[in-house]
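Just scan this pair:

***
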Amino acid sequence: MKMVSTTRRLCSAAASAALLLTMARSATAAAASKLDLHLQRQLHRGSNAERVIIRLKPGQNETVRQVLRQRGHAVYADHAGIDALSVEVSADTLRVLAKHPAIASISSDADIDSLDNKNSTTIDTTSALLTTLGLGNWSLGTTAGVAVLDSGLQDDGNFTGRILEFDDFTKSTPKFNAIPYDDYGHGSHVAGLIGSSGAISSGLYSGPAEAVRFLVLKVLDKNGKGKTSTLLSAMEYVIANKDRLGIRVINLSLGHPIYESAATDPLVQEVERATRAGLIVVVAAGNFGRNPDTGLAGYAGITSPGNAPDAITVGAARTNDTAARNDDSVAEYSSRGPTWYDGIAKPDVVAPGHALVSDVPATATLALSYPSLVVNYNRHSYMRLNGTSMATAVVSGLVAAMLDVSRFGAVQRATALYGSRYVSSGKWTPPPLPTANAIKMMLEYSATPLSDAYGVKYDALTQGAGEVNGLGALTLAYCIDTSAPVGSPWLTAPVDPHTTFGADSVAWTQNIVWGTNIVWGTDVIAVNQASWPMNIVWGTGDGDNIVWGTSSDDGDNIVWGTSVLAGTTVWSSNVVWGGDIVWGTSLWETNIVWGTNLIGFFDGDNIVWGTSSDGDNVVWGTSSDGDNIVWGTIDRDNLIWGTSAVAYSVLGTF
């Protein structure tokens, strides 16, 4: 076959080495620019002015402000937490700033969007969200509040008495302690999936954390649009007021395309800062997992800040409105990893996110624009929506419930030891709540792996560790004693790694995705490891390995190469899959190209996708020396994961 022979020639040692060196040089040149990809392209196209977020070097705030004043530009937001300023600048000023030694990086003040998928569905109303999680209508969530940064929240009776504060950041001057409202509807839908009490629907449309309290920050307008700088300001407010309001979870069912490395992305840096402050940030993976023209799946569609290492990044699963897991699948639109630029393994988990019914005001833009998706029940309006936004909200509610159950377990253990009078006297000090890393570990370890329609298990870049298992996650949260010293056992009771869904007992995945490795072993949950504190970035450590677990040797590792020359994973500006269909240019600004023949076929150790004969093939697999994974083969427009004797080192094998 002509394509196979072409592929073999391209994977020869000489061709691979030359291609890798070309890519390494390209990546090094891109890394040298202080401007993100969007700004580089805008300057090339002749833009007149751009709204930007400037990240400063330490102690350089006033220096840069003076430059901006001299050139007639006024700062409209100061993000002190990440040493950044938001300002609208001319193209000439942007070029000057890009060379200024006081500036670390310059990013677009990118448009953020709600990550819902408003395509209609033929599936009937989903009324069993809690059942699909293995849960019942339990009053959970009082221990920790959830901050919802979205389009607002309008109380229809399902949130009465539980809105701690409503702050409107869409105004030119933020309005605090305002009367709650939601003119778009997305925020109310998200909040309902987190913790609707179900009061109006008699429990039919309850969320996992029915008693949780909400801090609502409106960052999206009536059309579901907003700016990154607005979101940064809102997140800074949450961090500053988390203790006053008792907030432990942030829900971000929104995002924007990835234009730069996570190391310079202001939104990612704010998420990482929030995590270091003790918050658990749950983020949507994005709804860009398929070609909208062909419906075929593709990788590298994660949106920002889903590329934040410490965020719990959530993809969407279809449950088919049943309690059973054997018919669940990953939604075709759910974004797959790895992340653009950095090659971070995402999503972390998937959760029910398809055809979910939740609260939406009848007068909101969503309800008025998509009346076919409105569900009227008990004289109140709800709406059926799809998307990783919805799945993210489900996980945020589950996380709030886990924190509640963790505290409840600690109280019960202390009561058994010291008596209820001592525990309620105020002399007993509760142990700390689980960290973001520990919560992510529990979600991943107890998740259940999903398979496609042909019975083939989805890879970790599609489903993360698997679909969240509500009952399993709560079980771990209850049984783990967070007061145990690092290195000592902290599981207070034996845990059966199975959960019954419908009539079937389903095994947990019993592993976590740590960095580029899938790690197994009982110590993942049995011992309080040094990997769980807040100061550990998820996936980091000596050689990116978790020494207390064992990596799977059955082909389940997630592997891509890192450049010895450039110090980072090598990515080009485009992913080329075949040479026929271009889509997503308005979204990505990077011309992601998808081929028309994406089903693929096997050729020994290689999986070849795409059928063009002019060098535009996509190859997953190995070269003759077993060390290269090559995606794409045209000059400058390809993506290479893997190694060569010249520039790369392999982290494992597929």
User: Anything to note?
Assistant: The mean pLDDT is 79. Residues 382 and 538 are 37 Å apart (CA to CA).
